[in-house]
UniProtKB/TrEMBL annotation:
<feature type="transmembrane region" description="Helical">
    <location>
        <begin position="134"/>
        <end position="156"/>
    </location>
</feature>
<keyword id="KW-0812">Transmembrane</keyword>
<dbReference type="InterPro" id="IPR052244">
    <property type="entry name" value="Choline_transporter"/>
</dbReference>
<feature type="transmembrane region" description="Helical">
    <location>
        <begin position="650"/>
        <end position="668"/>
    </location>
</feature>
<keyword id="KW-0915">Sodium</keyword>
<keyword id="KW-0325">Glycoprotein</keyword>
<dbReference type="GO" id="GO:0005307">
    <property type="term" value="F:choline:sodium symporter activity"/>
</dbReference>
<feature type="transmembrane region" description="Helical">
    <location>
        <begin position="422"/>
        <end position="441"/>
    </location>
</feature>
<dbReference type="InterPro" id="IPR038377">
    <property type="entry name" value="Na/Glc_symporter_sf"/>
</dbReference>
<feature type="transmembrane region" description="Helical">
    <location>
        <begin position="176"/>
        <end position="193"/>
    </location>
</feature>
<keyword id="KW-0530">Neurotransmitter biosynthesis</keyword>
<dbReference type="GO" id="GO:0005886">
    <property type="term" value="C:plasma membrane"/>
</dbReference>
<feature type="transmembrane region" description="Helical">
    <location>
        <begin position="613"/>
        <end position="630"/>
    </location>
</feature>
<keyword id="KW-0472">Membrane</keyword>
<keyword id="KW-0406">Ion transport</keyword>
<dbReference type="Pfam" id="PF00474">
    <property type="entry name" value="SSF"/>
</dbReference>
<feature type="transmembrane region" description="Helical">
    <location>
        <begin position="491"/>
        <end position="512"/>
    </location>
</feature>
Length: 713
């Protein structure tokens, strides 16, 4: 056990660095608010004006790769063999699927100040898109509760992974409960102090450690355990086919496993685009270029982080033929390496630290997403629409404390009972979010889609899913998971019904409105902005003070309608007599917290990003990552040290990743929102006094001839 003692100083330094990043973020938040009189709530939940490319990429990567990516996939590869490859096409497909929604979600969020998907859905299906005012409320509330499930399953998953791995590595010198409580305390401090910026700063640290740790994985399994070649001598030998875990290394999966493989890949591709801690990054990006560059790189990270975990699990089949029931293959591997010398112990401790990085980076993001949803989707919308910045922050932090306590409690309980395991938790976290997909994907691109069609599909699909998952049809229910006898999950079955109903009913209401006499026609499509929010207005505003006043004033009005604090305005201009030309109430520091529903018109333009031929090709590539073209249960040949079918699956996933990078870099189309008038009851178009192209400051005499130009609404 002496060799494992090196873990204590390494983990101690890591926790100190995480806390330091949280304190630094809190300082930056206070500085930004003080300098610009900015929105404290937005500063806390969305990192103010947004995250740049470097920070955004690392926080997106660290948030995605949870504890399961490091320890869970090792265990899955150890127990299920080549089937663990499902994570790579599923992950690559997920990030390509973000291209369906990212351009529009980001643009409308910048335009209107959205924090959550429920806010987007409420506005999209309010007004003329629904026949009754209650419809958008039900859709938004259903989405809210459906998106809460992945938050808590992620928290439980991370704490379960963390507690189990630390306990295994230290031979129970540090109990699972102790490890979970210490980690939870650090997470809570960072979240309370710095919000999104603290999460992002710590994610940079944790993402770098995780990425480097994954590379060390590849080196260690080769140098210390013999790598693929040594493992192949064990599980590639037909004489060992009767040994536990070896059959799956020598054969094509059985039919039910192939169906389950398909279910997982396509279910993850759709459902995970709704996970709040991931979509929060779309809202928090500084501009569209950040998302484009970040996503085009993200699609390749699966081949470093998750693939290295798989190789470690496959090699462990030979290195650790027997593992105690409920034991962790990842922890056992680290312990095996640590006992070979002090240097190896240091490396093993670093690998443990990288795993903890993956766990904590996802947990803190889930925690922040949870609190922002409760603040925006419930508290300020229904209970306290006039809540001050301080009240909103206090409420959000109380929610974070409660959510963390629930996560810690359930994480400890799952370790004690062993149910659900990590695979079961991931299966369950897709059960409800997948039903938000039709509303978001179709709602962002189909102007004629009505709220009633979305609601019928939503409720029916969700009811079918919940009915199956809690019935005997779910053969994995005793394990806390979700799978029917045919291999399909209840989530996928319900999703297909949901999507089908939305498309059928939506098409009838759109193309045959006479069948629904209560449906009123939509107003004519609005005019698009001249440029996308990130590609032109921001640059113009920085160069021309007059446009800055116009844009900021209009954004303040939109902010008022959305129940958020006004963005920063330039100094209030005055006319030649010294009178304000913009009402004095509309300036930085003014609280705009009254919720005013406002219909979101998405226009009729079709994005080039959604080229149908390109997406059909990528869909076929994704489909053929599933070994449906091989006879189920047949003996599999080998390409080098890897079976033919998983080799083919990974090769196609690599081709898909290249296609994904092309989608973001060359097919991406910046969305141009529809022009909107100033919100009802807010400022009308005003005259801005301009002297030599610069708004005249209060109390200052004009330096040249004065002209007036209107604020554009």
């Amino acid at each position: 056990m002496a060799n494992t003692n090196v873990a204590y100083p390494i983990l101690g330094v890591y926790l100190i660095l995480v806390l330091g990043a949280g304190v630094l973020a809190a300082f930056v938040n206070r500085l930004n608010v003080k300098r610009s009189h900015g929105d404290k709530v937005r500063e806390h939940f969305m990192a103010g004006k947004g995250l740049g490319t470097f920070v955004w990429f690392w926080t997106m990567m660290a948030t995605l790769f949870s504890g399961y990516s490091v320890s869970g996939i090792v265990n899955e590869a150890y127990n299920s063999g080549w089937l663990a490859t499902r994570w790579i096409p599923g992950g690559v497909g997920l990030y390509i699927a973000f291209a369906v929604m990212a351009p529009r979600i980001h643009a409308v969020a910048k335009r209107r100040g959205y924090f959550t998907l429920s806010q987007v859905l409420f506005d999209r299906f309010s007004g003329p898109s629904s026949c009754h005012w209650i419809v958008p409320h039900i859709i938004a509330l259903l989405a809210f509760f459906c998106l809460q499930l992945p938050v808590f399953t992620y928290l439980i998953t991370q704490f379960q992974s963390l507690g189990r791995e630390v306990r295994t590595f230290t031979a129970n010198d540090i109990t699972a409960t102790t490890a979970i409580c210490v980690a939870a305390s650090v997470l809570l401090i960072c979240d309370l102090l710095g919000g999104m910026r603290a999460v992002a700063f710590t994610d940079v640290l944790q993402g770098v450690v995780l990425f480097c740790g994954s590379i060390i994985f590849l080196v260690i399994q080769k140098t210390e355990l013999g790598g693929f070649e040594e493992a192949f001598n064990y599980w590639g030998n037909p004489a060992n086919v009767k040994q536990p875990r070896v059959w799956g290394m020598q054969h094509v999966p059985k039919e039910v496993s192939q169906v389950s493989y398909f279910d997982f890949v396509f279910k993850t591709t759709a459902a995970a685009t709704m996970f709040p801690h991931l979509t929060a990054r779309l809202f928090a990006a500084k501009d569209a270029k950040v998302i484009r560059k970040g996503m085009s790189l993200m699609v390749f990270t699966f081949f470093v982080v998750q693939f290295s975990s798989m190789i470690t699990g496959w090699v462990a089949i030979a290195a650790i033929p027997k593992l105690p029931k409920g034991g962790s293959a990842f922890g056992a591997m680290l312990l095996l390496i640590a006992n070979r010398g002090t240097g190896q112990a240091v490396v093993a401790a670093l690998l443990l630290a990288s795993a903890i990085c993956a766990m904590m980076s996802t947990a803190d993001s889930a925690l922040l997403a949870c609190s922002s949803m409760w603040v925006r989707d419930l508290y300020t919308k229904y209970f306290r629409p006039h809540a001050s910045e301080l009240e909103q922050l206090v409420f959000g932090k109380i929610v974070a404390v409660i959510a963390l306590a629930i996560g810690v409690l359930l994480g400890n309980l799952s370790i004690v009972t062993g149910k659900p395991d990590l695979s079961g938790l991931f299966a369950l976290q897709n059960v409800t979010p997948i039903h938000v997909v039709p509303a978001v994907w179709l709602g962002l691109h189909w102007r004629g889609l009505r709220g009633e069609a979305v609601l019928v599909g939503f409720v029916t699909g969700l009811a079918v899913t919940l009915g199956i998952v809690f019935s005997d049809k779910n053969i994995a229910r005793p394990l806390g998971s979700d799978m029917t006898a045919m291999g399909l999950s209840s989530a996928w079955i319900g999703f297909v019904i949901n999507m089908g109903l939305v498309i059928v009913i939506g098409s009838l209401m759109h193309f045959f409105p006479r069948l629904f006499p209560w449906v009123k026609p939509l107003p004519p499509p609005g005019e698009e902005e001249d440029v996308a929010p990130d590609s032109g207005n921001a640059d113009t505003a920085s160069q021309d003070s007059q446009d800055a006043v116009a844009i900021a004033a209009n954004e303040a009005a939109i902010a008022a309608a959305k129940g958020i604090e006004a963005p920063e305005l330039p100094p209030v201009p005055v006319d030649a007599s010294g009178h304000h030309t913009i009402p004095a109430g509309h300036h930085p520091g003014e609280q705009y917290s009254v919720f005013v529903p406002r219909w979101l018109d998405i226009g009729t333009r079709r994005d080039k990003t959604l080229n149908p031929f390109w997406w059909a090709f990528m869909g076929l590539v994704l489909l053929f990552t599933v070994p449906m073209y091989r006879p189920p249960g047949s003996v599999d040949g080998f390409v080098g040290s890897m079976g033919k079918w998983p080799f083919t699956s990974l090769l196609l996933a690599g081709i898909l990743a290249i296609c994904g990078a092309i989608t973001f870099m060359y097919f991406w189309t910046d969305y141009r929102p529809i022009k909107e008038p100033v919100a009802p009851g807010m400022m009308p178009p005003q005259e801005v006094v301009v002297a030599d192209g610069v708004p005249v400051q209060e109390g200052a005499a004009p330096a040249a001839a004065v002209t007036t130009e209107p604020i554009r609404a």
